[in-house]
Amino acid sequence: MQPKISLFFKPSTSTSKTPDPPRPSTNLFADENAKESEILITYKRKSRNPDRVSEKVDSSRVMGKAGKVLNKKRNYAQFHLELGQSDFLLHTCTTCGFKYAAGEEEDEKVHKGFHKTHTHGIQFKGWKNERVIDLPALEGGRIILVLDGDPPAQAKKVQEVVKMMEMELGDGWIFKKQCKVYLYISSQRVSGCLVAEPIDKGYRILSSSADGRNDDISTKKARLSATTLQFGGMSFQREITKRNRSEKHIEVPNGAILCEKEAVPALCGIRAIWVSPSNRRKHIATHLLDAARKSLCTDTIIERSQLAFSQPTSAGKALASSYIGTKTFLVYTTIDYDQ
């Protein structure tokens, strides 16, 4: 049987009837001292969330474009003053000239090895076939001659020594194919090296160049006027000194060498000579020069006066003057023999 429509609009019995709101009191002047009802409000502190803390810590860092974590907090601590110095953040050894980062273990190790090689010489274990120059006056070492066309191991060692020489003497001119190389071996190290070549002429340097200074002004004392000052029992005399230029004055630029225009015969050209710093003043350079004079020419021993030096430094000038026995020794230019 179909239910009536009125049954659908019948209120539900399960719903509770809401109480009517309280009617306002008609007494407008109620007791003002009446105690109002107290309402207690409590707050509970939330527990710390570790995930939230990590987010705050990570928020101080941001990711760069290249994926590198960058710290947003800037550090203004200053450790160095950059004033245009060439070796900024690098230390330069005053002995060997090597530049390295002080405190870095790898750099310190590399510098230590290079420093020992520079001061004591390049390590040398020896070869099976050595061309040893016999010198009676040589004690505690030996001199080996290396020629063009020798085995690759010997040529490689020569190149290593030449690189060490170029650090002090300049690069690009010391060694050529026609040169003969003399190596001084002591304590399994190359302590000295001489590069020589056959030549046919040299030029005698002038005495003013050999002195290594300008003797352009000679002091000549001349008493032009004398004034005597008397103080009690003491007398003082004033003299005037006049400086006159010598008639034999020769202008010598700093480091330049002046020589005569006319060439003289020479047989042996000393292209370069080098001795490790810790072995200097032990007559090693003298032994190397003796070996060159003895073996450069196969049929004769070259006289000391027939040696000529190329681009001698101040130390080279002193060595040449001492070895030849005169300040007016011979020099030559390597350009004439590089072709």
Automatic annotation (TrEMBL):
Region annotation (Disordered) ranges: 1-33
GO annotation terms (biological process): mitotic sister chromatid cohesion
Any Pfam family hit: zf-C2H2_3
Transmembrane segments: none
InterPro entries: AcTrfase_ESCO_Znf_dom (IPR028005), ESCO_Acetyltransf_dom (IPR028009)
GO MF term (any one): protein-lysine-acetyltransferase activity
Gene Ontology, cellular component aspect: chromatin; nucleus
Compartments in which it is found: Nucleus
Keyword Zinc assigned: yes
N-acetyltransferase ESCO zinc-finger domain boundaries: 78-116
Annotated ranges, domain N-acetyltransferase ESCO acetyl-transferase: 264-332
Keywords: Acyltransferase, Cell cycle, Metal-binding, Nucleus, Transferase, Zinc, Zinc-finger
Similarity comment: family membership: Belongs to the acetyltransferase family. ECO subfamily.
Protein's UniProt name: Uncharacterized protein
Organism whose genome encodes this protein: Escallonia rubra
Taxon lineage: Eukaryota, Viridiplantae, Streptophyta, Embryophyta, Tracheophyta
